[in-house]
Amino acid sequence: MTKRDFIKMAGMLGIGLPLQTTLVSCRKETITPVDPNSESVLIIGAGAAGLTAGYHLAQQGINFQILEASSTYGGRMKRTNTFADFPIPLGAEWLHVSESVFSEIVNDNSVQVNQEMIPYSPQDSYGMFQNGVLEIDTLGSYSDLKFKNSTWFDFYDQYIVPTVLPNIKFNTVVSSINYEGSSIEIQTTDGQNFSGDKLVLTVPLKILQDSDIDFTPALPTGKMNAINDVVMWPGIKVFIEFSEKFYPTFFRLGNTSNNGNLEYYDASYGQNTTRHILGLFTVGDPSERYISRTGEDLKNYILNELNEVFSSDVSQYYIQHIEQNWVNEPFIRGAYLRDNENWNRVQTLSDPVDDKIFFAGEAYTQGNDWGSVHDAARSAKSTVEALVG
Fold first, then answer.
1. How sure is the predictor about 256, in pLDDT bands with cuts at 50, 70 and 90?
2. Which of 174, 178, 165 is nearest to 202 (CA)?
3. CATH number of the domain to which 186 belongs
4. CA pair distance 78, 282, nearest whole angstrom
5. Cα angle value 363/365/366 (rounded, 5°)
């Protein structure tokens, strides 16, 4: 059963998707809780999962250190404040679940979470371009929420990062993990060594698939089979500023397939701006024709595509563009786990190893949902709950 099959079945049965709050009972081995008086936890990766794990460990008074390969935190929540007069999310953009997830992540009733979100209207315009014709209709029911003058990165930057920032070591690329002894020994590409009692591994799946990290002993065969068999979709986002708004709120080029997604959308929607920013989000097979291009070549390809869709020369309105090719990010190399992945494999990805190595992130979930920031955060939160006991 794939993720889409599961969600469809749940909808027909009138049941909700289970939250990841029963990690211990779902996994195959007994977990020995961390002793906050004498033990420490290492976390690899400072994306949504790594930051969330560190934050919740701090709330429990457990010593931890985050090793981040790049020079900054956030991972696939990357955003820029220099392209427009509002934040542009180069990675994670929408909220796919209830706004209560913000308080769930913060996990502190004394903290007032002020994160303004914008719902889409059923009357918003939606276009489908196929067989050479753009047909415009209304959007209808659409549950995703858009951040207003903010992003996922900004939420973490405000509520989570201040707690964990002193514990992050940047530009620290892990090359090997040895877990055969009583403690976990980590070595980096520049010869640094780190030691801890437990490890929370949150690196993007492609890092493990490309064997960037050596494990001693090797990870179990079932774990390695799951790592190598699942697919992390390639992905790219492009934002183009125009002097005129000639496009609907959303429009797609052909029907979405199980092998990916391609969607144009009004990136300025609901923002405090008068500027016209069109976003392109594409993952999987449809992304390949964009990923292979960059700079002027990419710009011209997209403008020619839009000329065909709108039967006019939209390039006359072009001002500037920015691109984020996630395949080219050296410590990420892709977008996220494909939507139609087998949920049993996803469960196996999340299984801990020898009560020492734990996995958290958008791809390391209990198999009921994956591929989003809230999935990464919930998997990290449940992992910490298991570690605390």
1. low
2. 174
3. 3.50.50.60
4. 16
5. 145
